[in-house]
Amino acid sequence: MIFKHPIFNHRNIYLFGIFCLAGSIPISKYTTSISEIILLSNWLLEGQFKDKFSTVLKNKCIWMLSSIFIIHLLWLFNTTDFTYASKDLRIKLPILLLPLIIGTSAPLNKKLVTTLFLFYAAAAFSGTIFSLSIYKHMLHVPYHDLRRIFPDMSLIRFSLNLDVAIILLLYIIIFDKSYSINFKIILGFFILWFFAYMIFIQSLTGLIILVLTSVIFFFSHLIKMQSKLIRYLSLLIIVIIPMIVLFIIFRVYHDYYNIKPLNPSSIQKYTANGNVYDPDFSDASTENGNYVWLYICEKEMRKEWNSRSKIAFDNKDSLKNEIKYTLIRYLASKGFTKDSVGISRLSKRDIENIENGCANYIYKEKFGIYTRFYEVLWEFDHYAKFNDVGGHSVTQRIAFVKNAILVIKEHFWWGVGTGDVQLEMNKMYDKTHSRLLKEFRLRAHNQFVTFYLTFGVFGASWIIFTFFYIGFYKKKYKDFLYLTVFIVSMLSFINEDTLESQAGVTFIIFMITFFSCGIEEQD
Question: At residue 521, does pLDDT exceed 60?
Answer without folding.
Answer: yes
